[in-house]
Amino acid sequence: MMIPNRFPFLCTLLLCLTPFTYAAGQVMETTKPLFSSVFISDSLINALKKAVAEKRSPAYTAFEVCRMHADQNLDRTPTVPKQWYVPGYYHDAEGHRKAKNGLRDDANAAYAMALCYRVTGQEKYARSAVRIINAWAMEMETMSRKDDSMLSFSYHFPALIFAADLLRDESAIWPKDQQKVFSEFLRNEALPMNTMSRKNNWGNWGLVLAVSCAVYLKDEVLFGKCAGRWKYFIEHQIAADGHLPHEVNRSGGQRGIWYSHFSLMPQTIAAEILRVNGADLYNFKSPGGRTLKKAYERIAGWTRKPDTFPYWKGDPAELKGMHYFSYFEILNSHWVNDDASKLLAESRPMTATHSAPFLTFTHGITLKKTD
User: CA 18 to CA 10: how far, in whole Å?
Assistant: First the structure.
């Protein structure tokens, strides 16, 4: 059992008063949130069930991948550490992966099983997912905030929240007293782990964790602050031509596209959570004229034609992380883009390891045939 945080109110208060909340030019979103679902709405589940029943692509083919992953993890034993600590990747890559991959694999498995339960109605999926969710809420004793501990938690734990949200109406499978323990863990332990105050991709991933907690806990104040932080990132992370100055020069530009994806993916996931809950910011234009659409168009072009990426002077074939664009499934449903459509057509069904796997299944649209 996690050692209780003795000052839960103080943690929440400090989160609400941190400097990023009232950064210059930033206004808290005032739209009253719906608090209907965190990431996957009931209406989307109904549409997915229909698409699977009718064997319509891309949902049906992608669902088979999701179900295969769920089936492989039905008997999974949760891998919860007693002490959560993740060393920095660039100091101890092996230790970093070993420390965080248990959460990654548990969270993604629980999410796959929760999706399969909602689509098929088979309780075996829900019961296995609940076992994993409960373990993470009950079995850790301490959580470090050093090195990559907060970042790794910020980008892997949200999938567990998405899973829990899909199952919270099933009190016969997930009793209310267990759900209360999970909610308390979110408020007192998970939420303070967010990295939303950071200016680069760390901030975007922290936003995903914070806004997921806000919706699950029905916290209107936190939801408004998350929406305000999302707008702040649009203004301060995106240049006039759509590139991300914090990310494009990483490793001399060799990882510039990868880190741009690694910033825009969480920004997109957060946008979708906000939209589902009544704050549709996809077409938001910042005071400086910055937009998510412009960043999407820029990175989609570079991803499809890496030789046009100006921040790397070496062989384009040596660029890292070129294929981490599953979040294009969400963005392409808002702004159909030729480069993104071609990339998706070549790569479906797509998934990811951070926060939101199976995006071709949940958010993919039918692509028009292109030359």
Answer: 12
| Residue ranges making up the domain that contains 232 | 38-363
Helix H or strand E encompassing 84: strand 83-84
Per-residue pLDDT for the chain (371 aa), expressed as one digit of tens each?
Answer: 554 443 443 344 344 433 333 333 344 556 789 999 999 999 999 999 999 999 999 999 999 999 999 999 999 999 999 999 999 999 999 999 999 999 999 999 999 999 999 999 999 999 999 999 999 999 999 999 999 999 999 999 999 999 999 999 999 999 999 999 999 999 999 999 999 999 999 999 999 999 999 999 999 999 999 999 999 999 999 999 999 999 999 999 999 999 999 999 999 999 999 999 999 999 999 999 999 999 999 999 999 999 999 999 999 999 999 999 999 999 999 999 999 999 999 999 999 999 999 999 999 999 976 55
The residue count of the chain comes to 371
The tally of domains found in the chain comes to: 1
Residue 87 lies in a domain: yes
Q: Can you give the CATH number for the domain in which 46 is found?
A: 1.50.10.100
Q: What does the CA dihedral 319, 323, 329, 331 come to, rounded to 10 degrees?
A: -10
- The Cβ of residue 294 has, within 10 Å, a number of other Cβ atoms equal to 18
DSSP assignment of 283-325 equals T---TT---HHHHHHHHHHHHH-GGG-TT--S-GGG-S-TT--
Is residue 16 situated within a structural domain? no
Domain membership flag for residue 6: no
Distance in angstroms (rounded) separating the CA atoms of residues 135 and 155: 19
CB 223 within 8 A of CB 270: no
Query: What's the count of helices (H) and strands (E) in the chain, helices before strands?
Result: 15, 2
Residue 203 CB neighbours (<10 A) = 24
Does 370 reside within a domain?
no
Q: What is the pTM of this model?
A: 0.93
